[in-house]
Amino acid sequence: MQNEFSDDEINYIVDLVYEFYEEKGFLDEDDDKDIEIDEDELLDYVIKNARKDKIRDFTDEQVEAIVAGELAYCDTLNLFE
Fold this sequence. Notes:
Elements: H1 7-24, H2 39-53, H3 60-77
Helix pairs in contact: 1-2, 1-3
């Protein structure tokens, strides 16, 4: 899927990931509890909102690939550990 998406389209999906995190309270710096991300719930949220916003006709597989890339990136930063 390389070169299949513009930077704006990828950033849109990543923004939806962070909207999910925010709604779940995962970005609260004052909260020290362990964070457990339900990847299926995250994907459902991103896919639902991507379809609703109609930015582009993403397939589920395309969204999953972008989300997986973002989750892998977050792992390298130890963002939720």
